[in-house]
């Protein structure tokens, strides 16, 4: 019983941390920003990556060990939509993450990365897309838990 509760808690905590990290990224990502703001974006993205990994691992553990049984999930179309959105959000996060990682050398040398407006705009839209995806996943979880989508 404790294992199930702790796994569920870590799963939900992962969602909250991921969402919060994306909000921080969106708030501090600007064309002209300070060295401190750039570091906040890089650190928030690291938190995002760790929390997304936590969501994935705890999600798998919940399906295999603590949920309604693997057969239930694998025979539910909403489960596949939920997983597809998680994969899409993960893919959307790659471009921003690689961009932020490319800043680290300059940041360590005390240089703020210079960004083109178009790149800032592109990354900002991707972060918004990730946030939107993360708002849909809990909705699909609630729908799935009510037995909708079983074929």
Automatic annotation (TrEMBL):
The keyword S-adenosyl-L-methionine does not apply. InterPro entries: DUF2214_membrane (IPR018706). The keyword Transcription regulation does not apply. The chain crosses the membrane at residues 6-29, 41-65, 85-104, 125-148. The lineage of its organism: Bacteria, Bacillati, Cyanobacteriota, Cyanophyceae, Nostocales. Keywords: Membrane, Transmembrane, Transmembrane helix. This is DUF2214 domain-containing protein. Coiled coil: none annotated. It comes from Tolypothrix tenuis PCC 7101. It comes from the Bacteria.
